[in-house]
Write a structure and sequence with these properties.
Layout: H1 2-60, H2 65-78, E1 86-89, E2 98-108, E3 119-131, E4 140-144, E5 153-156, E6 167-168, E7 173-176, E8 185-188, E9 193-197, H3 202-211, E10 217-223, H4 225-230, E11 240-243, E12 249-260, E13 265-274, E14 297-300
Length: about 300
């Protein structure tokens, strides 16, 4: 009887050992997966973050393909990727305004190798588009049609012909009230061109009296000197669009000299001319302390 009990205890002890070994194997295996897969998850986060930032940086350098590839690689390396882990592709899908950044890191497992998992890959991918710079539209709601050069004093909101006052249509501008330390100002939608309109507008007078400061820097849309000399303004009637495609529009930077609310005459002196539509190459924008243009940048699209 005693021998039987001893054999039974021995068998139970052996079974317990097997169960413990199996349990430890499962626990260690789970721990290994947690540790190694956690490492892979972290690597993937690093790769994706590097790809996102690199794609935006690369897009900012477009259409310079070489510059974009160098900027993208440098930004990815700066944010945790190795140079050999980064691939920058532009044009992407045949589009020169797109750039793809692909970051891949090989992750070698430690504990999980005992379970047959030797290594894996952590990938990050992003596609960004070049966004050209654009002026935010802060300008007086008038269209200068007189000839000029730098230093010329111009009279704006003046009668060009009977009933024509060189003003932009209500459809083409918005009055933005003062907010957050930024004074009230007119914001012109010039994306497609300038809409001209005959007649007066009492609301313009009201807002001009509010913001007029002699000697202050201001902006006014204008015909190019060539278009002004050719008298093209007379070809446009009420609420007609002078399209951006005509190449006849520029933005003037000027100093506000005087404003007479009764006669509605305003004088300005031209200090800068900007080809904001890029008719002669890259768009040109003023650098202003108050209403900064949005600079060229990269926007993630994938």
């Amino acid at each position: 009887m005693k021998g039987f009990r001893d054999r039974l205890k021995s068998r139970e002890s052996g079974q317990s050992t097997v169960v413990i070994v199996l349990a430890l194997t499962v626990i260690l295996g789970a721990a290994a997966l947690v540790v190694d897969l956690g490492g892979q998850y972290h690597a993937k986060y690093v790769m994706q973050n590097a790809a996102d930032l690199a794609a935006e940086a690369a897009a900012m350098s477009l259409p310079d393909r070489t510059g974009a590839m160098e900027a993208g690689t440098a930004m990815a390396v700066k944010n945790g990727a190795e140079e050999g882990e980064v691939t920058v592709t532009t044009p992407y899908r045949g589009d020169a305004s797109l750039v793809e950044v692909f970051c891949r890191r090989k992750v070698t497992y430690s504990f999980a190798a005992a379970l047959g998992f030797t290594d894996g890959y952590a990938d990050g991918r992003a596609v960004a588009r070049y966004v050209p710079p654009s002026w935010d539209g802060a300008a007086l709601p008038f269209l200068n049609v007189d000839t000029y050069t730098i230093g010329t004093q111009l009279t704006v909101w003046d009668k060009n012909n009977p009933g024509q006052f060189e003003r932009i249509s209500k459809l083409g501008y918005t009055w933005v009230p003062a907010s957050g330390g930024i004074p009230g100002h007119f914001e012109v939608d010039y994306s497609q061109g300038i809409i001209v309109q005959n007649g007066k507008d009492a609301s313009i007078k009201k807002h001009l009296e509010e913001i007029y400061v002699p000697g202050q820097k201001i902006y006014v849309f204008s015909l190019t000197p060539e278009a002004a000399e050719a008298g093209v303004y007379g070809d446009y009637g009420n609420n007609e669009l002078i399209s951006r495609d005509t190449g006849n529009l520029v933005l003037l930077e000027a100093v506000w000299d005087s404003y007479n609310a009764q006669s509605k005459l305003m004088t300005i002196t031209v200090t800068g001319i900007y080809d904001i539509y890029g008719n002669n190459g890259e768009p040109e924008f003023p650098e202003d302390d108050l209403f900064n243009p949005e600079g060229a940048g990269g926007k993630l699209v994938e």
